[in-house]
Write a structure and sequence with these properties.
Blueprint lengths: L13 H11 L23 H12 L4 E8 L2 E7 L9 E2 L4 H14 L9 H5 L16 H5 L13 H5 L4 H6 L15 H15 L3 H13 L21 E2 L1 H12 L3 E2 L2 E2 L3 H7 L13 E2 L4 E5 L2 E8 L3 E6 L4 E7 L9 H20 L1
Helix pairs in contact: 1-12, 2-12, 3-8, 3-9
Length: 357
């Protein structure tokens, strides 16, 4: 399950217990599905009773805006519970990091970058003269795996970072709290450095690359999003994609980089992105690959993108299962929401696939 311990437990204990409590406490008076909300009929391959239970629980989460569940390429359930439609691009917050990692994968496939490339020569004058000499050791892979060693700019440091006049220079000037290639240090600044590296290496904006290498072959929209004071597109936050676009993104990865008959990413890249580098979040216990979180759900390996507030893409290749959930990105004061989404996966959606297999 999506917790530090990988053993299955009942709803009475652990992370799932806390999540189940939050689900049970959801008001039945929550806002009903928006007018015109889409819902497909259930398809074979998922246990209808368990899926129905998950839908009922999901409908009572006031922060949840949409949910899509697909099995073996077939949409089994989709609904916009509230808020924008399933085709409206929404802020996916830090799930942007996973999309950005895929842009980097496409750049590597095209020979524009290598995982082993050191970033300082690519960035050139963007590296401040005052930066610690260890910046010279940071590679593209270190950025993707959150192992750059630099003090994170997320959490309590985020505000100072985005208020700075030069985001790339500020992130590169942070003190080293570990060596490059050391422990995982989750940081939006690290992802933003990757955006700058992509721009410097290709001579094209991150937006242009994302549209050309991902949006066009997936036949989805990626609207423009915010940029730093130097014009570098925000790497790691604020991207917008619709729930259905996120489903195509997740399905492409489930299919080893293929979208229909179109090769979007090499299969070897997807395998590498889903290989844990050994880094583990001290807050959740989850491991990390190249832009993807890695854990288990109901005993099955799950790879997921995770954005603040509950912007989720779950991919379980062993079950041919992909699920997307989007939530209010600006909600405050709602505790346990992401844990409740994990519980939906652990206790209803994944078991529905196991029983329907």
């Amino acid at each position: 399950m999506l917790k530090t311990s990988l053993s299955r437990r009942s709803l009475a204990g652990g992370l799932v217990g806390a999540a189940a409590a939050s689900l049970a406490g959801c008001s039945r008076a929550a806002q009903p599905p928006a007018a015109g909300a889409a819902e497909s009929g259930r398809k074979p391959g998922l246990d209808g009773a368990l899926l129905g239970q998950g839908v009922e629980l999901a409908s009572r989460l006031p922060q949840l805006r949409s949910m899509i569940v697909a099995r073996d390429g077939q949409t089994a359930f989709e609904r916009a519970f509230r808020g924008p439609s399933l085709d409206t691009p929404v802020n996916i917050k830090s799930a942007s990091k996973t999309v950005l990692a895929s842009v980097a994968g496409a750049a590597i496939a095209r020979g524009e970058l290598k995982l082993a490339d050191r970033i300082a020569p690519i960035l050139g004058p963007r590296v401040p003269a005052s930066a610690d000499p260890r910046v010279q050791q940071i590679t593209v892979e270190h950025l993707l795996s959150m192992e750059a060693g630099l003090e994170p700019t997320s959490g309590p440091n985020y505000g100072r970072w985005v208020s700075s006049p030069n985001w790339v220079a500020y992130a590169l000037s942070r003190p080293f709290v570990d060596e490059p290639g050391g422990r995982m240090l989750y940081s939006t600044g690290t992802s933003h450095i990757l955006s700058a590296v992509l721009t410097a290496a290709t001579g094209r904006s991150t937006l242009d690359l994302a549209r050309d290498w991902l949006a066009e072959p997936l036949d989805v929209q990626i609207p423009s999003w915010s940029r730093d004071p130097q014009g570098i597109y925000f790497g790691g936050n604020e991207m917008r994609m619709s729930p259905r676009a996120l489903l195509r993104f997740g399905e492409m990865h489930r299919n080893g980089g293929m979208s229909g008959q179109t090769r979007v990413l090499p299969a070897t890249w997807v395998e590498d992105a889903w290989r844990s580098r050994g880094g583990r979040s001290p807050y959740t216990g989850y491991t990390y690959g190249l832009g993807w979180w890695i854990q288990e759900s109901a005993g099955q390996p799950v790879y997921f993108a995770w954005g603040y507030g509950g912007q989720m893409v779950y991919v379980l290749p062993s079950l041919d299962l992909t699920a997307v959930m989007t939530s209010d990105p600006d909600a405050r004061g709602v505790t346990g929401h992401v844990q409740a989404l994990h519980a939906l996966m652990d206790q209803t959606i994944v078991p529905a696939a196991l029983r329907g297999a």
